[in-house]
Amino acid sequence: MRLTFTVHRFNPEIDGHGLEADYRIEVSRGMTVLDGLIQIKNQEDGSLAFRYSCRSAICGSCAMEINGAEKLACRTSVRKELERHGRIEIGPLKNLPVIKDLVVDMSPFWTKVGDVTPWLATSPATDVPASTQMTLLPGSYQFHNVDACIMCGACVAACTSHEVSPGFLGPAALAKADRFMADPRESEAAKRTRLIELEKPNGIWDCTRCNYCVEVCPKDVKPMEAIIRLRRAAIRTGLVSTGGARHVTGFAELIEQEGRLNETRMPLKVIGFDVRSAWRVFPLALKMLVKGKLPNPFGGAIPGISHVRSIFATFRSRLTPHA
Question: Domains, the chain, ranges and CATH?
Fold first, then answer.
């Protein structure tokens, strides 16, 4: 069967912007998108540029956009794509500079991975034999599969926060940071230092929890869940001065106090006594008041609030270490 592959082409030496090129090739049973691209390069157009190496979904080199989603070309079935979308359209990963055709510059990606200090930030204990100083004992850690990341960049290409804020560290780098937060060989002081850096602008609180990184990850790393774990760790450590942390703690406080979210008090929980920030949200508050959408700030607790508060009490008791 012959099938058309539509490939986004871009040559910075001759093109001001990209263009779409159609290649009609013979496809066979079990063919992957990568197989098709290799056939195009060998038989149709030797100038086509793309990356690949292992062909086994291990190296992550062949990550690209296939029919609008970030995927590894080596594990993407042509037949399944055709059945699902009725076409094969291929482009480079988004949110990364394009070098040529399907090849993107991964330098910004690796720079951000380096920014999270992707190594153990601690010194081996002097009272432990050298042969066992860096040994992980079974059951002493849980990496939640973040160590399975192959650094393909698919999550960064799918990230909506990165799209509007290129400075955002991104899902892959933050998942890598979570891996070291879970490592028992790193000291608590070093972990706190990590969290102080990660809670800064472009860090853990800039994720919008769109879940796209989880959807496209070929190794089921679940980067968004790693970011949530980092947020929880920051709050447990007492790092609650950022707007994101205040939103989480303020939300919980209001539910415990009233049994429901009070949208009148919630902005004040986030911005505190910052007059300039309060002035910026005032027009929205005025519109809500006119539309009858502004709850009574002194409305009080709902009936049965004791049951809600008992949930919080039970949760705290489980977090408190017993003698």
Answer: 2-103 (3.10.20.30), 107-127+137-236 (1.10.1060.10), 243-319 (no CATH)
